[in-house]
Every structure is written in structure tokens, then in C-alpha cells.
Specification:
Layout (H helix, E strand, L loop, with lengths): L1 E7 L3 E4 L7 H12 L4 E4 L6 H12 L7 E3 L4 H9 L5 E5 L2 H10 L4 E5 L5 E4 L5 H13 L11 E5 L3 H13 L19 H16 L3 E4 L3 E2 L2 E2 L2 E4 L6 H4 L6 E7 L2 H9 L6 E5 L3 H10 L4 E4 L19 E2 L4 H7 L1 E7 L8
Parallel strand pairs: 2-3, 2-5, 3-4, 5-6, 7-8, 7-14, 8-13, 12-13, 14-15
Antiparallel strand pairs: 1-17, 6-16, 9-12, 10-11
């Protein structure tokens, strides 16, 4: 007779980014506790308060004090946690550069990395173009583009390229930029001046290399206006790197196979959006795309908490979502009993 059971790994370190500081803390705290582990939450330096409040709420709800710590600290000190052999699992969400570095210094412990991307959307000629344009405007500029599955590259079938581009421009021009505390605001500021300036320079660099800005492209302090650029090439940083800002590039393609190849190009593989009505194209994309998730007739920015979420290639290892994170934070153990051994 055989028995399979999952056992907790041990102490978990959960490192949380600034862009969704409460939601992503919950994605680490909940599965760790449900799996029977303790957890140390390390919030982003720019947004520590959410994790501290979450910790207070968890304690008031009855969580044993020894099962959870919230530790705001500089990144250098966080590295000490990652190196510590008493830590059994590292769950990191953040930049590729930091994530892969932490994996290198983590030793033998298990590691889950949710890193960056430069998510693509493919719009074929049979797509609902109004839906595609509206969703692209949402996915490219929600949270000021500071989402790892933010729409960054829009690949449009050439027969509908001009029509789709005009619809996207209309949708983007209708977005309101301003104070995020105002209910009517669609696009607020970026996290800080340095990040906004970095993204702005990438756009300016693309323009100097031959790209055109059709709308937006201006920066005032931390407010980066929603930006749409065209005439980009694969070697430009706005295409091959993660911009992490309210910037999308619109690129034409001739054949669906070309679109898949363009979407797969590069070092990232988080999620992709495909707008088409053809089931054969959908299944081909599902088979051939080097990503963690394929969103059909929607944007790669779509995510619900319970779905498995994660990427391949440079976008990370492992999966989040409560059930899948619990699997990552536990060890599968087998017991086999030979009943012929004289058991009473």
C-alpha cells in the first residue's frame, strides 16, 4: 500500500514588490501558513506599511506570533535572510536582475521567482477589434504600466493594422492622467522620478533609432503620459527589455506564424494575449508560445488570484496562486507499507 502526503518545508521568506504591495503579500502569506510553514515577509522599501498592517491583522485574527514576521529592511540585509540555511523556501516577486541574483546566493533551498516580462498581444484580422483596442488600452496603462504582465508589445495583422492602430489611439487618448486618488483618473504617477526617467530615456532612445511617438511620450516629474510608439525594431530596448511604464509599441505582421515568432522572441515568457476567433490558431498558440499563460481574446494582464501564475525563461520559475504556491511550499513524501511483513 502506498501513501502520499505533503509536508511543510519550513520557514519561508517572502519578498514583495512595490506595485501590488498588499495583494502580493497575501499571495505569499496565505499559502505559507496553509502549508504549515512560518513566514518572514520582507516588503518593498517604498511600500512597507501594507505588509505591517497585514501582519497586525493576521495576529488579531489569531495567527500564532511565532508563525509570522514582517521585516522592513534594506536589500543588503534581505540577502542575509536568503543566504541563511535555516530558511527552507524563498518566494520572490520583483526585478529579473535581483531575482536571479538571489537564486544564485540561496544555496540548497527551494526558490520561486515571479519576475519581469515584456508581454505581447497578437491581434489577428478576425478579432473583435473594438474589444482588443479597449483591453489593450487597459492592459498597457493600468497602474501606470508598472505590472510585469502589462501590455508592452502589440502585434497586429497587417490587413487590419491601420484600423486597429486608430482604435487603440482613440482609446488611449481618452485616458485621464492625474491624481490616482481621484475616481476619474485612469493613469497615475510612477513609483518615483528615477524609474520614470529611466522609462522616458528608453522611449527617447527608440525615437533616435527611428521609432515614432504617436501619442504621449512626455514626462512631468513622475507622471509619464500614456505613450504609443510605432516603427520599432527588435533590437530596441522598448521591445527587448521590460519598460515597466505606460508605453506600448504597435508592430504589424503578415502571417500568424510570424506573430508567434515575434511574441516568443527575447528572454521573457510570462503571459501572452491572442485575439482571434479561429480555434486552430488558438490551439497552435497554446502549443507554441513559450509562456506561463495564454489569454485568448483578452490581454496578458488578466489574472485572477486562484489561477496558476508564473513564467518561463527569464520571467521566473515556479507558480503562484494559492493551490500552486502551497505545492511549491511543501515536500511530497511517499510511504509504502508491505502488509506481508507481519503488521498487527
Amino acid at each position: 500500500m502506498g501513501f502520499l502526503e505533503r509536508f511543510p518545508l519550513g520557514p519561508v521568506v517572502g519578498i514583495v514588490p512595490f506595485n501590488f504591495p498588499l495583494n502580493l503579500a497575501c499571495h505569499k502569506l496565505g499559502p505559507a501558513i496553509a502549508a504549515g510553514n512560518s513566514i518572514i515577509l520582507k516588503p518593498a522599501s517604498a511600500t512597507p506599511v501594507c505588509s505591517l498592517l497585514l501582519g497586525e491583522m493576521a495576529l488579531k485574527a489569531g495567527l500564532p506570533p511565532e508563525s509570522m514576521s514582517v521585516l522592513p529592511c534594506p536589500n543588503v540585509r534581505a540577502e542575509q535572510l536568503v543566504r541563511d540555511p535555516r530558511i527552507a523556501y524563498l518566494s520572490f516577486t520583483g526585478s529579473c536582475l535581483v531575482g536571479w541574483h538571489l537564486r544564485e546566493i540561496a544555496g540548497r533551498k527551494k526558490v520561486g521567482l515571479e519576475l519581469g516580462g515584456n508581454a505581447a498581444v497578437i491581434v489577428h484580422e478576425d478579432a473583435n477589434l473594438d474589444l482588443a483596442a479597449t483591453r489593450i488600452a487597459t492592459g498597457g496603462f493600468l497602474n501606470a504600466g508598472q505590472i510585469c504582465i502589462s501590455v508592452q508589445r502589440v502585434l497586429v495583422h497587417r490587413p487590419v493594422y491601420e484600423q486597429t492602430l486608430n482604435k487603440i489611439l482613440t482609446a488611449v487618448q481618452g485616458l485621464k492622467v492625474g491624481d490616482p486618488r481621484e475616481p476619474t483618473t485612469d493613469v497615475g504617477p510612477m513609483i518615483d522620478r528615477a524609474k520614470a526617467q529611466e522609462a522616458y530615456l528608453k522611449v527617447q532612445e527608440a525615437v533616435h533609432q527611428g521609432a515614432r511617438v504617436l501619442v504621449g511620450g512626455t514626462l512631468e516629474d513622475t507622471l509619464f503620459t500614456p505613450t504609443v510608439i510605432t516603427d520599432t525594431t527588435p533590437d530596441m530596448r522598448v521591445i527587448r527589455e521590460e519598460v515597466f511604464a505606460p508605453v506600448i509599441s504597435v508592430v504589424p505582421y503578415d502571417a500568424f506564424s510570424e506573430a508567434l515568432s515575434l511574441a516568443n522572441a527575447g528572454s521573457f515568457g510570462l503571459q501572452v494575449g491572442i485575439f482571434t476567433q479561429n480555434i486552430n490558431r488558438i490551439m497552435r498558440a497554446f502549443k507554441d508560445m513559450e509562456v506561463g499563460g495564454v489569454m485568448v481574446n483578452d490581454i496578458p494582464t488578466f489574472r485572477v488570484d486562484q489561477m496558476p501564475y508564473g513564467g518561463v525563461k527569464g520571467s521566473g520559475i515556479g507558480r503562484e496562486g494559492p493551490r500552486y504556491a502551497i505545492e511549491e511550499m511543501t515536500e511530497l513524501r511517499l510511504m509504502v507499507i508491505n502488509r506481508m511483513g507481519g503488521m498487527e
